[in-house]
Amino acid sequence: MNESICVLPCNGLDKCAGDLSRRVALELTQSEEVELICPVLLNQNKTRYEKALAAGDLTVIDGCNTRCASKLAGDLDLAIKEKVNVSDVAKALDIKLGVEIRDDQDTQAVVREVLEKINSSAAEQTESEFIEPDSIEYNTFSHGKFIFKVPQSNYFFNENDCWVTISGNMARVGVSDYVQQNLSDILYVDPPEIGDKFEQFDDLGSIESSKAVFEIISPVSGTVVAVNVSLNDAPEQVNESPYEKGWLVEVHLSDFEEDQDLLHDCPAYFEFLQRKVAEIDV
Amino acid sequence: MSESTFMGVERDRIDWSPRIDFTKCNDCMDCVEFCPHQVFEVDENAKPKLKVKNPNNCVVFCRACSKTCGPDAITFPDKPETTKMIKAIRKAEKEAATDE
Fold this sequence. Notes:
The structure holds two protein chains of two kinds.
Chain A: E1 5-9, H1 16-28, E2 34-36, H2 39-44, H3 50-55, E3 57-62, H4 68-75, E4 82-85, H5 86-92, H6 105-119, E5 138-143, E6 146-151, E7 155-157, E8 162-167, E9 170-175, H7 177-183, E10 186-190, E11 197-198, E12 203-209, E13 213-217, E14 222-227, H8 230-233, H9 237-240, E15 249-253, H10 256-259, E16 264-265, H11 266-279
Parallel strand pairs in A: 1-2, 1-3, 3-4
Antiparallel strand pairs in A: 5-6, 7-8, 7-16, 8-9, 9-15, 10-12, 11-14, 12-13, 14-15
Helix pairs in contact in A: 1-6
Chain B: E1 5-6, E2 9-10, E3 19-20, H1 30-34, E4 40-42, E5 50-52, H2 64-67, E6 74-75, H3 79-99
Antiparallel strand pairs in B: 1-2, 3-6, 4-5
């Protein structure tokens, strides 16, 4: 783990959320270990920041969902270590930011919350209780130059291409080989919070490539007990091993029997996926 | 046909598609560019320009376009309600099939 961090904020000139990203970034740079990266200069001259980026982990602060800062990092192939979206934080606090730039109690509260989010390290997670199988056998089919893999058994899928595999009342959730090939190089995994309770088909965080953001649509209902922290440093594991090393979230199941009604087993998903890729351009 | 059903339920029986708040929409068309399923249509001569042309092309439970929306103008129906409805339709169809 690097000791220093580089902060790449939204440019923050025209809207309230952007202005708050700028304020958070300026607060952070009060610390000596933090280097501020100007998005405009970075875009113009990447080499200017090469040294700082090599020495420190990159934290990106997006103002809104346009995600200019994230997209810039993605376009320049910069690995993002941590990321926060000011508008999401404001929404969670039930604060409406609007367009106009202002400095009042509400905006100060958002700045504080964003800073706290960046400064607090990930919640402690307990030792994994999930028992991994020794080996997994796959079926494959090809479509054009693509080859798609689906496990032969013990995985269940929703039609949103997310999988779940079960061990007792614990389960792991991830995305299918189809998703990772569609997104190509995964640059960032945004995990849910430990302890979050969720229903079947709720979002369980997202994964992001330079092409797109993919919402993890949970195949089951339950509680988040762990996230795959090895993806912080190596999100490419989702590409290399989508069904095993690239698992995303470990959950405590609440009612798998009920959830199973809206899931495919491996052979059914294999057929579903074959139909799907035949119908749309991959 | 996987595109016209979701878990065996005909797609047009499931109410799942983006709703646009035109008081917030700024015509940036990021959603149109993002969605690979031709859910949206742009008519330069109309007002508003953006239209949800093919709601049934929208992937059930996907809300990804709303995450690309800077002004946060896109919302979707309630997920648990939608899940309940899909399960109810499946159950009714199963029962109808066993009655025959």
